[in-house]
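Explain the record.
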Amino acid sequence: MKTIRDINVKDKIVLMRVDYNVPLKNGKIVDDLRVRASVSTIETLLKRGAKRVVLLSHLGRPEGRVDMKLSLSVVAKALEKMLKRVVGFYPLPEEGAKISIPGNVKVALLENLRFDLGEEGNSKEFIKNIIDAVDADMYVQDGFAVVHRAHASTDAVKEFLPVYAGLLVEKEVVNLDKVMNKPEKPVLLIIGGAKVEDKQPLIEKLVNKVDYIVVGGKIAADGYKAKNEKIYVAEDFDENAEGAKLDIGPLSTAKLAGMITDAKTIIWNGLLGYAEDPAYATASTITAEMIGEHVSAETVICGGDTTGFVENLMKEHPNLSYSLVSTGGGAALEYLLGEKLPGISAIEK
C-alpha cells in the first residue's frame, strides 16, 4: 500500500483521519495514547511542505446528535501542547459551506464526525461536503482503530480523493503482517479476557501458525477446555474471599514465564486477571514486564484493556519496549483473523 513516504505533499491540503476516541473523565482525557500516536504523521506532513493538515475523528457514540460532552475541543487543546503549535478547531460544515481557516493555521481539527449520521452511514455526500469545505487535495488514513468500519471517513472517501497510509497505520500493518506471515519461531500467543466467543476465532485461526498458546483470564477461570496439545490453559488461580478466581496463580504464571523467555515472537491479547484491582494484576504485570524486557523478540500487544494496561506500566517503567502496542482493538483482531478491512482496502496500492 502507498504511504505518505511515496507521495509529494508540498503545498497540498491534506485531510487526515485519526482516531481520537479517547477515554474522558470529568471532561479531561484519561489516556492520550491515540493522540500521541498521531503526532509523527502530522509533523512529517508539515516538514515535507504540506500547506495544511485537517484532522477528522469521532469520539464516543453520539449517534448523529450534537452532544458537547463528546466534543473534540478537549483533544484540540491537548494536541496543541504536543505539537507546540496552534490547532484550529472547527464545527462540521453546513451543506455547501466553506470552512474559513486562516493561512497561519497549519493544523486544524473538525468536530466529532459522529455528530452527523452521515459518518456511520458511509454517506458519500457527507464526506464530499467536508472535502469541498476545506479544499482537500488528498486523504491520509492514520486512524487504525477505525479501519475495520465501513464509514464515510474510512470507505466512501476513496470515491473522491486518493487515500494513503499514515505512519501509524503503516507501523500497525507492518508489525501485524510480520507476526502473521513471517514470524521468527517459536511463536507464543497469550490469550486472556472474559468472553470466550471473542477469543475462540483467534485461537482457531492461529493455532496452526503458532507454537504455543496460553489461555488465562476469566476464560480459563470459567473452565475453558482445549484438545490441542499446543494450548496450555491456566491450571491454578488466585481467589478472593468468596472463592472467585480473579487471577492466574503462581504455577501457571511460572509456566507462562518460561514460554516468554523461549519465544522469539509474542502476541498478547487479553488481561490474565481482574487487573483493575492491583491484588489481581500480578500475572498481567509479570507478563507485561517480561515481554517488555525481551528485546530480542518481536512483540505485539493488542486489545484495548491490554494496551491500556501496558501503557500505564510503561509510564512507571520507561525501560519496557514492545515492537507494537496496537492502537486498534477490534481492528487489530480482525486484521489478525485475515478479515477484509474497508479502511485498508481504500488505501492506494
